[in-house]
Specification:
Length: about 375
């Protein structure tokens, strides 16, 4: 069935904004500018300020939700289901997981390439699958276990490519390895977030935009307040800012004043995360969850190609192999092979059996990919 113009628009919007989200964050990291108090020119290394901007983008989804709801209520027959009433504090634990994971990933993005950053985020499949089995009692089908093992292989290949060629890029080899490990660590926290959301949040039938916005509100509020003590916590050279503190928000604003293009990169990150969440939810609703997964994988390719074109990183053949292996693992875990097998008479029964053993699998996949942050941040 051919896609409508609106469906094509949504697919393009999701692919574009998802790519801009990572590229704009990396672009901000590449600027250098003078700071406060006559500090010499130095790199813009403010991951927690960037994370605050990301949560502001998620928070804006709450405004979009209420605008959509108000517009829908003016119709003779409202179509939007606002969901049942719920305690917003249900979202606080997963929001804190999102905050920690996103902050760690923005620290890591300053140490490694944008393409490796995006590819290594595929590790969330491994930890989500294992935690879902341990704490939610879910039984994974053989193809999902195979997908997990292939994903691990892909992660090893991408990490190996960074290890072998790290000296060719602007980052030191030790920084690249540390950044890659931090990204993997962050995916463990993201998987905890997903398990918490599924166990305590999704059963309340909360509208996705409202869920994204509520988590964005908690993340924005808490992390904004944490910027105050971070200003006084000394961490030495790890911070890469003149005062050697965990986060110097004042230095970030001073650098923005000296180099206005930084605010453009930060706004790109904030706006793109809001539109990406909206487009992702709409793609799932208007087309399918499978299409959303494919588009999410394609944005990794877009980020890699754009980074090469801009000269941000060098071509690595081993990284291409890692990307293809990760793509295969993701496809197997998410069941993208099932429509193909269903067309083969001898395999159709196996597909039906797999779906019966996981009755809510497609809905779970939608939920697993609902929030971008600790997931597209």
């Amino acid at each position: 069935m051919a896609w409508t113009k609106y469906q094509l628009f949504l697919a393009g919007l999701m692919l574009t904004t998802g790519s801009i989200n990572t590229l704009s964050a990396k672009w901000a990291d590449m600027f250098s500018a003078k700071g406060c108090r006559g500090d010499p020119e130095h790199g813009f290394s403010h991951p927690f300020v960037q994370a605050v901007g990301m949560f502001l983008g998620e928070f804006s989804c709450l405004a979009v939700f209420y605008l959509v709801l108000c517009h829908d209520r003016r119709r003779p027959e409202p179509k939007v289901n606002p969901g049942q009433s719920f305690n917003p504090l249900l979202f606080f634990p997963p929001a804190m997981c999102d905050m920690i994971a996103t902050s760690i990933m923005y620290v890591a993005l300053n140490m490694t390439s944008a393409s490796s950053f995006q590819m290594l985020r595929g590790a969330v499949i491994v930890f989500t699958g294992l935690l879902s089995t341990a704490f939610l009692g879910r039984r994974l089908v053989p193809s999902q276990w195979l997908g997990i093992f292939i994903t691990i292989l892909g992660l090893v290949i991408v990490g190996l490519s960074d290890f072998l060629t790290g000296h060719r890029d602007e980052h030191k080899l030790s920084e690249v390895i540390t950044g890659d490990l931090l990204i993997i660590m962050a995916q463990i926290i993201v998987s905890v977030q997903m398990v918490l959301e599924e166990k305590f949040v999704y059963k309340h039938d909360v509208h996705p935009l409202r869920a994204v916005g509520t988590e964005g509100f908690f993340g924005f509020l808490v992390l904004s307040l944490l910027l105050i003590p971070m200003y006084f916590i000394h961490v030495g050279d790890f911070s890469n800012n003149p005062r050697g503190v965990l986060e110097d928000a004042l230095d970030a604003f001073c650098q923005i004043g000296h180099q206005p293009l930084i605010i453009l990169a930060l706004l790109g990150n904030t706006v793109s995360i809001a539109f990406f969440n909206f487009a992702g939810i709409s793609v799932t609703k208007e087309i399918s969850a499978t299409t959303r997964m494919v588009l999410d994988s394609l944005r990794t390719l877009v980020i890699w190609v754009v980074s090469l074109a801009l000269g941000w990183e060098h071509f690595q053949g081993l990284q291409v192999l890692g990307f293809l292996v990760l793509l295969l693992g993701t496809g197997l875990y998410n069941g993208l092979h099932r429509p193909l097998l269903a067309r083969i008479p001898c395999c159709a029964g196996l597909v039906s059996e797999a779906e019966e053993s996981n009755p809510g699998e497609r809905e779970r996949l939608v939920n697993d990919g609902m929030l971008e942050g600790g997931d597209e941040s």
